[in-house]
Every structure is written in structure tokens, then in C-alpha cells.
Amino acid sequence: MGSPVLAGPALPLLLLLVLLPPGPARGAARFDPTWKSLDARPLPAWFDKAKFGIFIHWGVYSVPSFGSEWFWWYLREKKIPKYVEFMKNNYPPDFIYEDFGPLFTAKFFDANQWADILQASGAKYVVLTSKHHEGFTLWGSEYAWNWNAVDEGPKRDIVKELEVAVRNRTDLRFGLYYSLFEWFHPLFLEDEVSSFQKRLFPVSKMLPELYKLVNKYQPEVLWSDGDGGAPDTYWNSTGFLAWLYNESPVRDTVVTNDRWGAGSICKHGGYYTCSDRYNPGHLLPHKWENCMTIDKFSWGYRRDAGISDYLTIEDLVKQLVETVSCGGNLLMNIGPTHDGTISPIFEERLRQMGTWLKVNGQAIYKTQTWRSQNDTVTQDVWYTFKPKSKLVYAMFLTWPTSGQLLLGQPRATPGATEVKLLGHGKLLNWTFSKQNGIMVELPHLTVHQMPCKWGWALELTHVA
Ligand SMILES: *[C@@H]1O[C@H](CO)[C@@H](O)[C@H](O)[C@H]1NC(C)=O
Ligand SMILES: *[C@@H]1O[C@H](CO)[C@@H](O)[C@H](O)[C@H]1NC(C)=O
Ligand SMILES: *[C@@H]1O[C@H](CO)[C@@H](O)[C@H](O)[C@H]1NC(C)=O
Ligand SMILES: *[C@@H]1O[C@H](CO)[C@@H](O)[C@H](O)[C@H]1NC(C)=O
Q: Where is this site: May be important for catalysis (predicted)?
């Protein structure tokens, strides 16, 4: 304590500390390759604020564009008659799935155009399938010889083109989906026969490829999928994630999901996805994401889809509102065509979401959950909250024919509570309802005066 003996070395030490550049791990938590440690990592804050992302399923399955992106599996493994017949009727007898590779041309793919459509959707992140279960990589992976977009098909680095366009032209974060397993990779099949005692596939293919992918494209969402029935120890998921969080170029901002091995879903990793199209309708104690697709039956593009197979914009706004009110993010999927176009039906849905969010974004982005997720009296009313400005948003999906909206949950303050319709802006009259809550007088608007058509949001002040 104040000892002159310590005065000597103290000064150089101080200098050294000042002169040292801030190292990667300085001040930041270090994560061990255990679920206990990795699960305790706080999710980077941008993700919860973003609320809305776009999922893109694009690969060789976009060439047959028939049935589902699981085309190869259904054809070769399951031999489902619909797929077998399709091949018999449309291709020569010896034509196999691998022959679709060169036909994946991406002829009209314009990453800038995609980026502009993504921006117009109001989404704050995008997740592209860098590799689906078929194993075809949308970049020139040296571990996917002759089965990648640079060696065959487009002969272009699709991942790079979209990354540059998204980062250069939009405010979206760039994310990548990556399937751990591959249906028919011989090394994976050999490991599977050994009940995953052998680890040939992760050691020589999946792990080196995934490290390369992260270093090269620096995705801020890493959306893992396809554990192939193998445990996380087979994939060395915890070893990889410890590197991702401690050392990787995206260690401070990357978010991941929960699909890191059999049994890890809804339990380990970053945010929870739990199942495809997960939308629990109630609050969860952990950040989650509802990944769903505009085509009700497929993630990849299908030429055999009819108009009724696509969710309407009303359906999609409902998904967004329900999801965000319950603390989730919505990841809404489109499937581009093999030649790289986003079909007008998907483009329209994306742009519609964007116009809705232009009016109602305040009730979505950067919000938190409220004490009540949906109304207890009126159906299809969902709440969000901004604690700092003490604003409560009530999003309603049906415009009441009476012109009056009964909200059973908000406890209003006489003389203080103000109610506005987003996109309209004027103060609305309200009265205490005979039961609980308040009755809001909605404005009388003509069709053309409506700020939007598929769902509306009231902003309430001074409510408890
Ligand atoms: C980024 O966008 C600007 C303006 O649109 C363009 O001039 C520039 O070439 C782009 N950069 C890259 C790397 O694409
Ligand atoms: C798992 O990954 C970590 C980090 O890269 C590495 O140190 C470890 O040796 C790996 N373990 C196995 C069994 O592959
Ligand atoms: C609130 O949402 C839950 C879950 O979707 C639903 O079961 C309940 O009926 C809703 N409440 C009203 C009043 O609609
Ligand atoms: C609110 O109520 C008052 C008194 O009934 C009425 O004069 C006024 O026009 C109403 N305002 C709106 C926006 O409906």
C-alpha cells in the first residue's frame, strides 16, 4: 500500500497498458466450449431490435422447382411417385439430380436488384442458404468440388455478390444459412453407419468449410440447420461456437440459432427457433424467431404453386404482429427461380410488408414486449411497448364495423392518456369502458384515407 518498493515497476506497467492496442478479447467475456458457457452469452442487441428478416432458399432444387426443396431426397431416398413421375415425364431416363447443377444458371441474377427489394421490404436482416442439405454451395467452396456455384451453373460467387450488394446498398445485416449435414455425402453416410463414432465428414468437410465461410463472408447471422440425427459432439458445435464468439471476425455482432445437433433445438445456442413456423402465441423467457415461408408448402421455388398456395399480405402482417408481441423475430422466406429472379408474387409481398412497416414500424422495430401480449376482450389485438418513451402500441387486425375499438387491457389515466392511429396522427377520443379498459373512437376514413389496409396500430400514452 503506497510502498516505495512498488513504485518502480508500477509506472512501466501503466505505460504498457496504455500503449497496448485493444486486443480482441480485452474486456470481453471468454467463452468455453461448453453449453453452459455458450448459452450464457448475451445476444447482440441489434437482433432483438431488428424484428424482421428475410430468408432466401436458393439452390439446385430451384431448377426442377417442383414440389419442395427436398426434391432430391423425395426422389432418390423416398421414391415418392409424384417426384419419380415428374422425372420420367420430363427428363431422359439416365438424368440424375446432379445433372440439374449446370442448369442452375442464375442468368438474370442481379444482386443489386435483390438488395433493393430487400430494403423495400422493411427487413433488417437477410439469411441466404449458402448450402442446403443437397450440399451445393453458393460460393466456390474448395470442399465441394464441382458441386458449387463457381465451378458449375452460374460460375459466380453468389454469396459474395449478395454480401457486397446488401452491405453496400442497404441497412440490412447479412446472414447465412448453413446445413451441417448433406443427404448423400459419402463421408457423412459412412459416419452414419458407424452411429457417428467416426467423424470423417465434420473433420474433413463441414468444419473446415464453416470456418472458411465465416472468415470469408463474415455473416452476422449464422443460421445452422440439418443435424442429420447426429449429436452436437459429432459436429463439435461447442468448439466451433467458442471460436465464433471469441476469435472470429464477427465475434461481437454475430447471432446464431439453436440447431447445432440432435436435441439442441429450443435448448442450446443463440436464439431459439424450436420448429419451422414456430409461433407460440405467448411470451417465451428466451429470444426466439418464427421462420416461415410465404409459399405454404415449400421453402424453395415451385413452378407448381398456385395463387392460393401463397400466404396473403393479411396473413403475413398477422404473423409479424403476433410474433413481435410475443418477443420473437419474424424470418419470412422467399424462393427465387433458378435463373435468379424473384417472382412478382414474392416481390409484391415483400414490398407490401415494406409499405405496412413504413406506417407502423414504430410499433415493431426496437419495441419490447408489454405485460400483456394480446387483448383479453377483443380478438386480434396485439401489444408492444417502448419503455423509455412509455408508449404502448395496440395493433389490431380487424377494423371494427362499429368504428369503436374496445381495448380491455390498458389502464388509462384520466386527462392524460392520448391515443393516436399511426399514419393518421390526430388525437382520437376515448372513454372508459363499462367493463375494463377503454373504448377508442376510430376516425371515419374513406378507403383512400386509410394509412394502410392490412392491420393498424394505435399509440397510447400514460397507460399502465
Ligand atoms: C457500392 O455502391 C456504389 C454506389 O451505388 C458503387 O459506386 C460502388 O461500386 C459499389 N461498391 C461495390 C463494392 O459494389
Ligand atoms: C473442437 O473444436 C475445438 C476448437 O476449434 C478444438 O480445439 C477441438 O480440438 C475440437 N474437438 C474435436 C473433437 O474435434
Ligand atoms: C390471445 O392469444 C391467445 C394465443 O393466440 C389466444 O388463445 C387467445 O384467445 C387470445 N385472446 C383473445 C381475446 O383473442
Ligand atoms: C371528440 O369528441 C368531441 C366531443 O364529443 C367532439 O366534438 C370531437 O369532434 C371528437 N373528436 C374526434 C376526433 O372524433
A: 291
> Does residue 15 lie within any of the structural domains?
no
| Residues 161 and 271 both lie in one domain | yes
| Cβ 385 under 6 angstroms from ligand 2 | no
Q: Are 129 and 268 contained in the same domain?
A: yes
Say which CATH number the domain at 155 has: 3.20.20.80
Q: Grid coordinates standing for 162? A: 449478395
Sign, CA torsion 25/30/32/37: negative
Same domain as 146, residue 96: yes
What is the domain extent for residue 388?
381-460
Per-residue pLDDT of the chain (464 residues; tens, 9 = 90+): 333 333 333 444 444 444 444 444 445 679 999 999 999 999 999 999 999 999 999 999 999 999 999 999 999 999 999 999 999 999 999 999 999 999 999 999 999 999 999 999 999 999 999 999 999 999 999 999 999 999 999 999 999 999 999 999 999 999 999 999 999 999 999 999 999 999 999 999 999 999 999 999 999 999 999 999 999 999 999 999 999 999 999 999 999 999 999 999 999 999 999 999 999 999 999 999 999 999 999 999 999 999 999 999 999 999 999 999 999 999 999 999 999 999 999 999 999 999 999 999 999 999 999 999 999 999 999 999 999 999 999 999 999 999 999 999 999 999 999 999 999 999 999 999 988 899 999 999 999 999 999 999 999 999 99
**Is 384 strand, coil or helix?**
strand
SS3 per-residue string spanning 296-322 = CCCCCCCCCCCHHHECCHHHHHHHHHH
Ligand 2 centroid to Cα of residue 423, in Å, is 53
**Nearest Cα residue to atom 13 of ligand 2:** 236
Nearest CA owner, ligand 4 atom 3: 429
Hey, whose CA ends up nearest to atom 6 of ligand 4?
Answer: 429
CATH number at residue 409: 2.60.40.1180
pTM for the full predicted model: 0.93
